[in-house]
Structure formats: structure tokens, C-alpha cells
Design brief:
Length: about 450
């Protein structure tokens, strides 16, 4: 009988614990090759972000996560092959050159990955493709509705699914099929895993993620999460699970299991429920991205209703560099560039500023976040930007925040603004408009 060869394409599932797809691979094939295709800066991303590449901090967190996964696979006599090439061409080459019979890939929400899988099926019809959703509280088949009937708002989604049971996380596999003898893969890049490290509070990888989650639930911070979650700075005001969730170093089901154990020990309250609530938002945006595919990136959003915004190069650069007339926005943008992270409250404020005060097409902000955030997740990032721009999952239209009022609420003493040098404002934001006509300055209201 012909030996079966599996290709496991790691995407946003960089872990062994609670990885049902890896268990499937272990049970179905005789030999296994594990690969990861490094993120490519697409023309779309380059155009809208006005950046040539990813923030070094985002690259570092990813590289640390890949290194950790490679070490874990090594304990099972396996190896992670990191390919610095577009996913489709790299995968087609591997399937054809190695004689791959099975492809295993998480059911990801990104349209690029979905298109790569669809085209791979077309070009390699003999290939058996196994996909499984492993980065969510709920499986698609658990939902009480078809994906085409996804509720138009998160509240309606939550009301229908929050009573469903969340499965317990799976153990890590005890063994994996071996690699083929004499395996050689061209274009495999290992140098990324050995770049000098930049000091940051976040260390990538499954072990670091699990340790962070355990420290959080060993504290009493979950019990007051709802009261502190809108903080702007520091590691203690919110869970900080998102970087590891975004890369799949830790699964939502693992965090949910830790949360339930905390509630057994210390009691459940509104704050512990709110942690589950935030995990459920991630699920909603995952299904939202699967439902709307390319419309996640359209200017007019899911209903094709274009906002009254445009593109102003000087304003966008001032927003990115933190030199707008709005101190709280500047501080948040400086924090993002220097740490690769920004609070949820900060993200709402800077997005509101870009869309409403600066009147810029929301896609420029979403793409810039994609290049900068340690916790970049395609569904949550683009779904939230659509939500705030009024072209997504919110029938009430766009969300505009009063930046002066928000500053008074969340930075009344100005500590955050001073720490992140938010007062480096410029009074005149424009000298020319989008077609180089002279314009008057944009000033903040007094």
C-alpha cells in the first residue's frame, strides 16, 4: 500500500495543546511535513498602510512563537520549516515535489488563505484537504444557524450561542508521524528565528502564552476585569491574552477552561463573565469574516455603503507619527509604534480620530494596524475597523468619540499623555489637499 504523506500548514495555530487538527494528522498519515509561510507584505497592505514591512516588534513576537513551536515539534522528532514565500506557490511546489497526499490546515478566516486553499484544491485535485476550526470557543457545526444566516449584530449572536457548552481543550499529541527520509525543502528560512531580540513585555510562543495566562488566573485580577479593562497603559489593567490568541499559541478553549477553574475557586461575577464575553466577540468576528470574505476589506463594508471620507497624505502621516492636534491620539500612536500594542480603548479613540476628525478612509488605519500590532488578527482587526466606520456589524452607524471627554475620563492627570509624549502636536495639519490644492489648517474644536 502506498504510504501517505501529510503536509501540515501552520497558520494561526502555533501550538500543540488543544490542536485537534494535529491529532487528525497524527492519525491519518504515515509521514508528516510541518511548514509555516511567513506573512508577505501584499500590494494592498503596502498601498493602504504606507509601510514597506512589518513592525520589528511584530516580527519578533512571531519569530519567538515559531521558534517555540519548532522546539516543541523537535521533542516529537519533528521540525517546523519556515518558508519565506507566498503560500500558494510554496504549497503547490511542496505538494508536487514531495508527493503530498494530505493537506492539513486550520479553517482560517483570512480571504487570502481561503483562496490559497481553494486554488490548491483546483491545481492538485488528487490532494485530500482536511480543515478544522481550532481557534474558537465554538465549532461552526455547533451554531444554531447557518453561516449565511449569521446575526447582523454581536448582541443577537451572543443571545443565540452563549448558552452552548464549550468543549474542554485537548491534550497535546504524544507522538507525530516522522518526516520523510532525506527531506530537503528549498526556500526554507531559518535566520529569522535567530535575530537579536528587542526588550518587550511580550514574549512569543506557546509556553510564554500559557505561563502568562496562568499568572493572570493565579492573581485576583479576573475578579475586577470589567472595572479596569479600559485602562490605557501597563500590563495589569486587562488580560493581555490577545497576542497569543492571535497567533494561536493559546486557544480560546484553554483560556475558557482556566476561567472556569478560577470561578470555581473564587466565584463568578460580572467581570469573569466579561472575559468570556470578549472571547465570544473574537468568535463572532471569525464567523463574520468567513461570512463576508472579501467584503471585510471593502471601503463600503458589508452593505457597500461608502463613508464620506477620503485620503489626505499629510493627515495620515501625522496620525501614524503621533503629531495630530489630539494629544490622547498621539500618545496612543507613539505607544503602538514603540511597543506593538495599544489598549482596546486606545484603538477606538485613534480609529474614531482617523475616520471623523481627519476624515480618512478607514482602510488606511486598518492596514497600518496590520503592520504594527503584535496581536494582529485579520477578522478582529478589520471587523472592528468596519464596526467603528459604520460599514460593518452595527446598524447604528459609525462611532465617534469626543476625544476631550475621553481624555478626561481615562487620563485625567495626563500621566499617559506625558509618558508617551502625546503633547507633540502640530497646529496646522494640512498645507495641501488630496490633489495638492492649498487648504486651511485643521484645528481641534475649543
Amino acid at each position: 500500500m502506498k504510504r501517505t504523506l501529510g503536509l501540515y500548514w501552520f497558520t494561526n495555530d502555533l501550538r500543540l495543546l488543544d490542536n485537534g487538527l494535529l491529532h487528525k494528522a497524527a492519525a491519518q498519515v504515515d509521514e508528516l511535513v510541518c511548514v509555516y509561510c511567513y506573512p508577505q507584505v501584499t500590494p494592498f497592505m503596502r498601498h493602504y498602510s504606507q509601510e514597506a514591512g512589518l513592525n520589528p516588534l511584530r516580527r519578533q513576537f512571531l519569530d519567538q512563537s515559531l521558534k517555540c513551536l519548532n522546539q516543541s515539534l523537535g521533542d516529537l522528532q519533528q521540525c517546523l520549516h519556515v518558508l519565506d514565500a507566498p503560500a500558494l506557490s510554496a504549497l503547490v511546489s511542496l505538494v508536487e515535489n514531495l508527493g503530498v497526499t494530505h493537506l492539513f490546515v486550520s479553517e482560517v478566516s483570512g480571504s487570502d488563505e481561503q483562496q490559497a486553499v481553494a486554488r490548491l484544491k483546483q491545481q492538485c485535485p488528487q490532494l485530500t484537504v482536511e480543515q478544522y476550526a481550532i481557534n474558537h470557543l465554538y465549532q461552526p457545526q455547533q451554531l444554531p444557524f447557518d453561516l449565511a444566516d449569521l446575526p447582523a449584530t454581536f448582541t443577537r449572536f451572543r443571545n443565540q450561542v452563549e448558552s452552548l457548552a464549550v468543549d474542554l481543550p485537548l491534550d497535546s499529541p504524544l507522538s507525530l508521524p516522522p518526516m520523510p527520509d532525506g527531506l530537503q525543502i528549498s526556500g526554507c528560512s531559518g535566520q529569522r528565528l535567530a535575530e537579536p531580540e528587542i526588550m518587550t513585555p511580550f514574549s512569543g510562543g506557546e509556553q510564554a502564552g500559557l505561563a502568562h495566562c496562568q499568572r493572570y488566573f493565579d492573581s485576583r485580577r479576573p475578579g475586577d476585569y470589567k472595572q479596569t479593562r479600559n485602562g490605557l497603559d501597563g500590563m495589569d489593567y486587562s488580560t493581555k491574552f490577545s497576542p497569543w490568541l492571535a497567533l494561536g499559541c493559546v486557544s480560546p478553549r484553554t483560556i475558557n477552561a482556566m476561567l472556569r477553574r478560577y470561578e470555581v475557586l473564587y466565584g463568578a461575577n460580572e467581570s469573569t463573565y466579561w472575559i468570556y464575553f470578549e472571547l465570544l466577540w473574537r468568535d463572532y468576528f471569525y464567523f463574520y469574516a468567513l461570512r463576508y470574505v472579501e467584503r471585510l476589506f471593502k471601503f463600503g463594508g458589508i452593505e457597500d455603503k461608502a463613508p464620506l471620507t477620503s485620503y489626505y497624505a499629510q493627515r495620515f502621516q501625522a496620525w501614524k507619527q503621533g503629531t495630530t492636534p489630539f494629544a490622547i491620539v498621539n500618545a496612543c500612536m507613539h505607544q503602538l509604534r514603540e511597543t506593538g500594542y495599544m489598549s482596546n480603548r486606545g484603538r477606538q479613540l485613534v480609529a474614531s480620530c482617523l475616520i471623523h476628525e481627519l476624515q480618512i478612509d478607514w482602510r488606511y488605519g486598518a492596514a497600518y494596524f496590520e503592520t504594527q500590532l503584535l496581536d494582529y488578527d485579520v477578522a478582529s482587526n478589520w471587523g472592528n475597523w468596519q464596526y467603528l466606520a459604520g460599514v460593518g456589524a452595527d446598524p447604528r452607524g459609525s462611532r465617534q468619540f469626543n476625544l476631550d471627554k475621553q481624555t478626561e475620563m481615562y487620563d485625567p492627570q495626563g500621566h499617559f499623555i506625558r509618558r508617551w509624549h502625546g503633547d507633540s502636536t502640530q497646529a496646522e495639519l494640512d498645507s495641501v489637499d488630496m490633489v495638492d490644492w492649498p487648504v486651511g489648517p485643521l484645528k481641534r474644536d475649543t
